[in-house]
Amino acid sequence: LDSLPLQLQLQLQQTFQPLSSLPAQKCGCKVLMVSVGSKALPLRRPKHHSIVEHSPISGEDSEHKQGRRRRNMGRKSTKQQKGSNGGYASGSVSDKTMKDKKFSKKHDPAEPEVSYVRKQIDPETAKYFSEIADTLESGEIDLEERSIICGNALEESSGKEVELCTDHIISHTMQTLLDGCDADHLCGFLRGCAKNFARIATDRCGSHVAETAFNSLASHLVVQNWRSTIEDTLMEICQAIVQNPVDVMCNCYGSHVLRSLLCICKGVPLDSEFHAAKSSSVLARRLNLKGDGELKNHTQNVHQGFPDVLEFLVSEMVKCSTPNIATLQVDQYGSLVLQTALKLLEGQDQELIQLIPVIMGCKMENAEDGNLIEKTEAENIRDLVKENAFSHLMEVILEVAPDILYDEIFMKIFKDSLFDISCDHSANFAVQSLISHARSQSQINVMSEELGPRFKDLLEMGRWGVVASLIAASERLHAYEHKCSKALESAVTSADESPKCIVPRILLLESYFFSNDKSNWSWTSGNKVHVMGSLILQCLFKYPSEYIEPFITSLTSMESSHVLETAKDGAGARVVEAFLGSNASDKQKKKLIKKLKGHFGELAMHPSGSFTVGKCFDASDVPLREAIVSDLLTVQRELSKTKHGPHLLRHIDVDGFARQPEQWRSRQKSKLAVYKEFLAEFGSPEGGSSKGKNPPADTSKKASQRTSIKKMRKEIDNVLTSFTASAEGSKKRKKQRIW
Q: What is the pTM of this model?
């Protein structure tokens, strides 16, 4: 009571007496009515849905049973994940990134907040739902009976939805009921609690119930018969939420529920990256390390969705939140809801052009003149982007903004301030997103002119993600690649130093740039390859070879022990694989592979190293392939027991080499000959010089071409293997006939 207003405390004290002084009238062990003041209030008992008539249990046993249920059904506390380091690309819509100020509500003082007192659940209702829980947990009923029981129990919850869903114990039962009922009862329950849905969604226990209801709705959407009913139900919930959306958006539980509601309206899985994207997947997209096909698989719609409901929810939610938009911009949970909404509307340019300026705090009066962002608003946004929550929001805005709006944001907010913004721990992520989603070569030119000369400063500050993003964007748009590679070379070496030190310093990026004596720095065994250093080199090796000669020379000049240490490291192995897949000359690739000679068996025992061995084998000539298979033959038994070993042994055909070495060599020569003929005829997907003047390449075509080359190589291997096997079989049959 102490947390309630004084007037409300006095009113409650006058109305209610302590429970110990309330006389109860009993019949057996069932409470029929209880007296409050001078009135006798009858308690509602279940009328016709009782499942099993239990014998009366003593109060001591009842307390023991309730205590055991509390222990067994307690919710796990959610662990807060750490946000990403300043040097790493961040996840755009992930709960892990929250380190900003606590939310302080800034509502209009003219609208006083109404206190809500949660009603107690009467004992008879609590007992009824306890019996329901016991019956469902017994496992003695079939699916049809279970659905009927769940539906009947949900009917009994009518009028008490908030109290039941927010109860620590009964909320678990409600989740079971919503998961097991039919669509009719599910929609009926949601319509019944629509007006109070915000209270359920913002409660620690109630939010789990709401999530379960949405998951159950999604499963029922596969049956088209219920589509209209579900759409009406969702619209009713949305209409209730938009009455006061800020409270739900800025609540840690409500934010999660609201994002799930947005996802179900769009028709995407509730656990998709729209809800909470991993930073690794965001980073892979930004650095062009993930194919378009892989991205589409993660974002496929599971049902048609409800476009009208989604548009209504997002537009009304933003419209009603406009007076409090400054709060939402810096609130960690409110920002997440806006991020999800924007990602779900990607491609709907008209809606985004209306929403994004409002979310950034711009006045829409200027939109008619084509001037969406004023000078004072641009200055305010530059300050806001240093806030953690708004920085993540800006990342998504830059990702989904239509071209015309992206260009205005770039020219008015970021241009001439790129380096200053990049220096900030949070704002540098927005710069990474800006660069990664650049639309034209001219934009890349401006970015490289401004940031290229400052690569060294950025690397020394640990803003590695900004450098990696610019290198990747330059490769994607085939713009100013030579300029970017030269800028990186200058950042890592001085004019009088040999280029041989470039790659080792980038591989051990943190060790070198945070060294007290850079002039005497040398490779230190035992240091792990830096993840962002590895990613920078992977992006760089996609450049035409004439632009990266110093980097190729540096890698192929490394000591054999350092190359082996790099190949054994997970991040380092990716660099070796990227180099072997580049359009560097065969001679340079073989020079690197020879440094691993005698260690392929050791390397293959590492899960990441096994992929590197496979890449080395594919890039080798027949003598080098024989050296690799000979190394693997010594560890064949141990390697076959690992998870990755059997695939590698089949790929290299170690058994074939052990049985018939000469025929193995013949097969390898045939494969290499056919593969070279194919490349001579159709060309390599990695080949070809790309000058800055060339038009941007179609990245989807490029990715599909790489996939086709991989399939072609497998097909060549399979055809030649089957041909050789059939030839061997015919020879054996001839010998048998002669005999």
A: 0.77
